[in-house]
User: Fold this.
Amino acid sequence: MSTLKVAIAGATGYAGEELIRILLQHPSIQLTHLAASAKWDRPVALADVFPRFAGQLDLSVESLDPARLASSCDVAFLALPHGVSMDVVPILLKAGRRIVDLGSDFRLRDSAAYAQWYGKPHTHPELLAEAVYGIPELSKEAIARARLVANPGCYATSIILALAPLLRAKLVEREWMVVDAKSGLTGAGRKAEPSMMFSEMNENLWPYKVNHHQHTPEVEQALAPFAGAGGVSLCFVPHVVPMNRGILSTMYLRLAKTATWDDVHATYRDFYREAPFVRLRPQNQWPKIHDVAGTNYCDLAWTVDQAKRGLIVTAAIDNLLKGAAGQAVQNLNVMAGWPETTGLCA
Amino acid sequence: MSTLKVAIAGATGYAGEELIRILLQHPSIQLTHLAASAKWDRPVALADVFPRFAGQLDLSVESLDPARLASSCDVAFLALPHGVSMDVVPILLKAGRRIVDLGSDFRLRDSAAYAQWYGKPHTHPELLAEAVYGIPELSKEAIARARLVANPGCYATSIILALAPLLRAKLVEREWMVVDAKSGLTGAGRKAEPSMMFSEMNENLWPYKVNHHQHTPEVEQALAPFAGAGGVSLCFVPHVVPMNRGILSTMYLRLAKTATWDDVHATYRDFYREAPFVRLRPQNQWPKIHDVAGTNYCDLAWTVDQAKRGLIVTAAIDNLLKGAAGQAVQNLNVMAGWPETTGLCA
Amino acid sequence: MSTLKVAIAGATGYAGEELIRILLQHPSIQLTHLAASAKWDRPVALADVFPRFAGQLDLSVESLDPARLASSCDVAFLALPHGVSMDVVPILLKAGRRIVDLGSDFRLRDSAAYAQWYGKPHTHPELLAEAVYGIPELSKEAIARARLVANPGCYATSIILALAPLLRAKLVEREWMVVDAKSGLTGAGRKAEPSMMFSEMNENLWPYKVNHHQHTPEVEQALAPFAGAGGVSLCFVPHVVPMNRGILSTMYLRLAKTATWDDVHATYRDFYREAPFVRLRPQNQWPKIHDVAGTNYCDLAWTVDQAKRGLIVTAAIDNLLKGAAGQAVQNLNVMAGWPETTGLCA
Amino acid sequence: MSTLKVAIAGATGYAGEELIRILLQHPSIQLTHLAASAKWDRPVALADVFPRFAGQLDLSVESLDPARLASSCDVAFLALPHGVSMDVVPILLKAGRRIVDLGSDFRLRDSAAYAQWYGKPHTHPELLAEAVYGIPELSKEAIARARLVANPGCYATSIILALAPLLRAKLVEREWMVVDAKSGLTGAGRKAEPSMMFSEMNENLWPYKVNHHQHTPEVEQALAPFAGAGGVSLCFVPHVVPMNRGILSTMYLRLAKTATWDDVHATYRDFYREAPFVRLRPQNQWPKIHDVAGTNYCDLAWTVDQAKRGLIVTAAIDNLLKGAAGQAVQNLNVMAGWPETTGLCA
Assistant:
């Protein structure tokens, strides 16, 4: 494998930190540039931002300059606040760079939906059709060819991986698909908000954006091809729980036809036959966050309630890995033609 | 108010600890006896079990002796492991004592259901009809007259308080009522299990007893009178989250008729007009565990999705207070004819 | 006991929250006014600041107006940011109010030391001599007569209670008295700082203000009368640990003369003979935060290393109670001539 | 580098889990055998013990059989309960295997000290002289030649790395060297003890084995060569804090001669010139657990109090990595003649 030069814009957030950690061990990557969206007078040593990297990588973090970013790398990871990357991406594309965007700017194909959910118009709607929504388990070939991959949201990844196979198999009803998700706090990003202080969050728990979270439309969009005409209708309620990492999504579905645990198992098994990062748990063994924390796996488990026509599915991921930086590197591996698991320890 | 002599059997668990804490401040109670189900050679000073009570209560904890328990008190709180109180209660009743049983032995009216869910036959099924399921908001008059009150389970309390008014008003469908509950760890009791060690539970989260928890039948039994013929059918999945206290139950319901947020508000408001411990949150303000931790309140909030005929309700309680010891004292207050809030700080 | 009208300035912080919680249950207090140092356009309902108080207290929180504060109460608790109360206190005193100031403005008697440690000159140095440093176990009579009580810092309380008796008995050397303290996060106050976010603090731990914390001079000042000429010299290093509440201070002392565990016990016992909130632990039983959390106790334990002339003492308190709001109410009780424990559950 | 066959005895504990995790990524290791000290009827799939390894390593864990262990590997890691490895090591040595023992059986050279601190006689005292105490920063050459390396305790590693250079430079007094250490809970091992339950430990903190911890003699033994005649005298108090991983040791020392921050820096810098895993922090920057968690680094920081002749040093490590499994692999790398950092991401 030849080596690619990689830059990270948004290197000072949690996803950026994880990207650096992973890429330091990736055999075919050279980290060449780190940038942050903050306006700084001068570059800051990475070790001053993240002392954990002292002695490991002698790079500074610079304020984001799209031209400089474009000239520094073959591939750029963007982990920027909403609304920032849509103006950076065109510059990178023009320079011939390939991009994995961990933000939300290029996830929705419909610019009107973007404006509605993110509260501002999209400045480059002409690029939305080109962007590939980057779940390698669903779209490996498109990702391999993509110039621009839109890395999915953390909640979205856990939900889509659980539901796509069931929908394609027409096993479940597509209305009122209830998703109750629980997330660790790094999911909220690395910024000081009063409600996210330790003493506010510790020994606490709450729902938020109830039935109104911005990952809903990207899930519905991603599932539409599997659901057929009419698509799906989600009821999605995320909750924050006092832990740093991890998402557990519990999904409450109605069976569209009779099915057993084994039927569901066969459906998933066939769908994920070549997916190294999706694991199916043995019957009656439910996933814990510990089982996936620090890994790029998505663990699926389920139970069937024949009498009530119910199917309960849980999906567990590490929100910063399979939900963000890990999946981003998995996408890069696919784009570069490397084994999907390179640098991802599996 | 005259003073009642009160004993606690099961004083060394978390519910027992909370009962002691509350009753130390209750103006009309004298704690006269503490017992534990453990077999000890000799009594142990309370301060050796719970150093927090050093200097506050000079009682020893003795191994449980039903006769001695009966002779020590006017009213007994039982916070014993499943299957223990059913043999203690008859002795207390014969001695003329009144009882609040925090365990599960007298919650189900059907002895066959008891045997099925708790894995052993009930030794005194003849008492099941007499026991009053103790949610004062629903059964104040029966509790006032009761000799034996079966204090509800922690999850059950949060679910019943949320659903009973909606069912009575025929606002919601009674099938596939989805309840996704999240609980702190004291809910699992004070015993050393490998999976409940700090380093196993911290930074972790998991579902358990999926669609199979033993609180399901007591909820269905308690809701039946409100639901009418056919009763209700629950899909209940509890999760443990890394915090000590608190339960948040998120309920996913389908509307049986058109209704707005205000309609639901009116339904709850009317139902709980005289209930000091149920609070309705303003629209768009969701309850957090912090809002109820250390209190006997149950906070309710909800949202309506007209387009999808959906109603999402959340209920938050402190599992050791409104979910156990607080509700037990509330029941005692009702039994004694005292104001419901006595000693409960509200 | 007649009832006193009490106001709280600084009602929106953690100490303010605890004051409200305690005073709601205090039999001789009427809460008449709540103020915050924030500039608000209009008063905010207490339940909007702290939903836990919904239904319990129907007061609004207003922006701080010293004149209005003075006219609203007999006694004022001030829990304001450093440097704010020194301009409020003179107005309250002039109006004839008594004050318990939980902040640091009136703790140091020396205005030069104040300026050095707090980075600004004191605007009312003439009041420093009058303020009584409020540890009831040491200064009950002066507090009883005081117009202005300076409530000690949380670390300071734990250290002073442990060291004063040992110094008076000349048991320990007064140089290089090492204090390693560990505190929960509410000690840092209720403000959004990046390093205090949940995901920064959880699974983390660090020392700060090493040998340089602003509580050092108030401890040295408070201990001076017990130490005799030359006073004491502290080496104090605080650490933040990922929990909400509690301080454990571990002190490493050298014996000035031969002494046994029993000698130290006798020293403490005699000193705290009439102190209801200081508890001495049995030999070989070390205090845990759980033992004091939610209480106004300070638990002391120690061991003697005869061979090395060492004495190790630990002191545990709840930083928001004996370290702040609880001690403030204890001071009020002493000022009002009520039993020291009124409203403090002991 | 040729590949070594490696076995792990004690694969089901936290150190075992970390060893597996590291060795799965080590380029020159083949994991050939996993054993546990528990008596099992039949082997258990690794994925059933640690679901996180599902799909990564297809080995079973067997009950420990020393002969089978010896025949399975070139090098064995032993992470067994105290007192177990001393009977396994002779069998492995006789079979010509090399060993890294993460337990305490071969750390003390004096069998009487072993019996005193661990409460049982050593069954193979003749091997104590041969065992090399495995801190590569201090004894690289001896480790390279060793058949049997005794991997140090977690606390011990943090303390020795901080103190050895200061003692060799005669910078500090060797009496009453105060060490106040704070450890995460995985340090207590993976066993169900009541006091280590989540709800007992969360929001809690306490000292234990005060001035009496069994790591004290190994530290004193390891530091003796640096201290000269008379050795050192430690006052060591460990505390458990509510986090999973990490140790922070804060050391309170008296200067034996005048020294500045820079002098201490020069001392450490020279001592650790070729040590890739010891990092010196810039002045006034104190280490946090986050900086070392998940890494094999030991971060050192310090401050000098000239007036009081004081030197305060802090050392932070990940207790499971530099404090256990990471250091064990570092030792293996040295034994095998590989770069010290192989497989350890630095």
User: Anything to note?
Assistant: The CA atoms of residues 9 and 35 of chain A lie 5 Å apart. Chain A touches chain B through 43 residues (CB under 8 Å). DSSP finds twelve helices and 15 strands in chain A. The radius of gyration of chain A is 20 Å.
